[in-house]
Amino acid sequence: MSKDSGRELIQVKVFEHTTRHIIGRKYDCVLMFSQAPGDLHVKTTLNISPELLQRYDVAGPRYTSYPTADRFVEAFGESDYLQALALRRDGVAGGKAYPLSLYVHIPFCESLCYYCACNKIITKHHERGAQYLAYLKREVELNIAHVGAGQTVSQLHLGGGSPTFLSDDELRELMRMLQQYFVLTPGGEYSIEVDPRTVSPARLATLAELGFNRLSFGVQDFDAAVQKAVHRIQPADQVFDLVAESRALGFESINTDLIYGLPKQTPQSFERTLRQVVQLRPDRIALYAYAHLPERFKPQRRIHSDDLPPAADKLTMLSSAMRILMEAGYVYVGMDHFALPEDALAVAKRQGRLHRNFQGYSTQPDCDLIALGVSAIGRVGATHSQNVKTLEEYYDLLDQGHLPINRGMALSRDDLVRRTVIMALMCQGSVLFESVELSHLIDFKTYFAQELQALAAMQEQGLLKVDAQGIEVSELGWFFVRGVAMVFDKYLQVDRNRARFSKII
Q1: Which of 332, 342, 386, 442 is positioned for an S-S bond with 447, CB 3.0–4.6 A?
Q2: Which candidate, 165, 258, 149, 250, places its Cα nearest to that of 209?
Q3: Residue 229 lies in a domain
Q4: Which domain holds residue 108?
Q5: What is the mean pLDDT of residues 345-366?
């Protein structure tokens, strides 16, 4: 740390030119970045003022999709989804030629984590897993009946809940079923979320045997007081042993999830967790800000607001995370995500091949996503859809021979144009006018005249540059990229109620 006129400055050594920004404790920051690893010459100084932080301390979407899931409507139902599957089956726009992505939601957990905003079912009755798998098979069969057999899959993700709630035999059954109806391509990304409390070295070996090549460990925080406050006790030694075993088994990529802003966290305690994570050295790190929305998520009502760190401490935690992880050689891939330089996610970022879907950043090309299980969200063609959110509804609809679609939307031409722009900003930090114009047959500057005018203030603040060719987010602006993307969100232009979203910083 150095002092300048009473303001704390943080100097950060960044090891990849794709790393964009870092925020100081409360006032300013200095960013050091280089064109090549090891070159630590100061290239740019960024000053993030309190006024700028306050201006963009607002809630906004995470843009894992556009339009966002809160815009889905119940008027979109099973027949709309079946039409989208038929279009893919018939090869409209070449859809059948492109591999699928699969997401399977396993909702069960043995115990409740108070911070959790996922759709989950807390139970110790493991026999419920067998019944759920039987209904998953029905859902797969209904999808296959309409989309056609032999669909190739290049990406599979098991999420929840806790997928490792299922027994080894049940996981084997699930993978056999998926491989019966889909063709999993060699070299694809096959990942599963792992609760460290529910796995052993033998279970990890089973996951490797079943073809999973990527693991995501839910860590959140190693501090004992924080773990107790969120009702998730898992000693650090346990996680270290499991990660070491995962490496020995040859998993291609290991991710750990961290959350800052949890009850009982302090900047000092979270820095200790960060130091431990650097020693753990996962290939990827997902760093999320805790969004306290007890009016929406009942488990969060067990968290006492007085135990939450103040906003200034959350910013300090974020700045410490950026500094520590970058000094350790991690590349800042994009919102919330860090990766080691040789990891596929960092490589995709460097090569401009980064994509974003309902699971976050991805290296796989933009493709159709079939989502299976209660509450799962998918995308087929120009449609988004979500399954019903309760097991009772899910089982009942499948018993009647119906796909359990609850809501969704068919994207309009305007939605598709804006999705292109927003995803380009979120993944590449830039938009080329000509590319959008050729893809969607519009005149960008005319179509987005209002939005370009709104970007003028951001350009004056140094967040981006607009010229004749396009929009380029600056090193400073990359930190506020969600705010930049929000300018192009038609739905936010008419609906300023953003309380349902997390803060963008």
Answers
A1: 442
A2: 250
A3: no
A4: 65-194+368-411
A5: 84
